[in-house]
Amino acid sequence: MSYLKPLIVAVLFGVPAVASAESLLALNGLRTQSGAGSEIEVFTRAGSHGSDYFCAAGDFARRKLGADTTDRIVISRAPGGSPTRANQRSMGFKLVPAGAKRSAKNSFVLSPRNIGLSRTVGHSVFLCKNTKGSRIND
Q: Which region is the signal sequence (predicted)?
């Protein structure tokens, strides 16, 4: 019966009994979390652009997943309804190790709708801007 004690405490105090996905407030203020499978889920915010989403995904990969700066962040899901949170919008990224074969898809324009577009973790974090609009790494 001792295994019921944590469940009873959780129910009484409103604490979820199941651990939630690992989340992080990125350097630029966007919310991120581990998504379905190995996906990095970045929640959209009005006025944000492709570079903002790459920044958030790169920051999550570096700080939470311990990714190397040469690993790649790849857009795996365009902005749309979140698969993990009701009534919220997000987009998905995958972390690809540096040695893995790279897709030929590359562009100077960081469109969040361009599935397959990738950047290195180092470049993604370099794109981070603070709330005043200046790059964090400057």
A: 1-21
**Residue 91: strand pairing partners:** 42
Structure tokens at 63: 């700080």
> CA–CA separation, 138 vs 86, rounded Å?
37
Neighbours of 108 (CB within 10 A): 4
Rounded to an integer, what distance in angstroms lies between the CA atom of residue 71 and that of residue 58?
Answer: 9
Residue with tokens 């200046």: 134
> In this structure, what are the phi and psi dihedrals at residue 110, rounded to the nearest 5 degrees?
-95, 65
The reported pTM is 0.76
**pLDDT digit string (tens) for 84-104?**
999 999 999 999 988 777 655
| Rounded-to-integer distance, Cα 34 and Cα 41, Å | 6
